[in-house]
Amino acid sequence: MAVGGPCSIEGCERPRMYNSPVCYNHKANAEDVWWDIERDGVSVKPRSRNLFSQEWSVEYEGREIRVTNQLDGSESAKLYIDGELRDEIEEDSVLPIPRGEIWLSTELADTGDTVDVRFKAYMFTVKAKILVNNEQIGGDSFENSSINERVDPFHPEVLKHGLLTKVLGGILIYAIMSVFGIFLLGILLP
After folding, report:
1. Which one of 73, 80, 111, 170 is most buried, counting C-beta atoms within 10 A?
2. 138 with 173, same domain?
3. How far apart are CA 154 and CA 152, in angstroms?
4. Nearest to 67 by CA among 134, 149, 129, 151
5. pTM of the model
């Protein structure tokens, strides 16, 4: 399916979203027009969404800004402008935990506006904030890190562990050592 083709909703002239039969304004109606999706001339219903897949999108001055992320690490986070891939996190950088830093960024050529995406990890999910010229226009709300430029995911500030991480790590180490100690006592004592 090509990006930018006509929306499948009758009378709509807007370009459709990436990998979708409809434009941003009609994304709620995508299930109603599944028969318009064709692969090799055969109509198919779109596959079900991956539970580990996250997506945020917002319209800004007639453009669709979309961010995708895979919680399972199978793909890197990506930033799309009108369906065109503009930035992505390096494949080998899925291990660091984001704390509100800018991980994706691009500049809009015709306006000079800067699009930044900040990520923040929580217990079972990752949140993303979409900003244009440092003003939030979409995504989730959370406190930004103090780093105000795009970071390398292995930047020393990114790798610093917070209090919760340190406490959970300590509990995990204590539990492992306790089990190992009990195992050794069982072997050493007759």
Report:
1. 80
2. no
3. 5
4. 129
5. 0.57
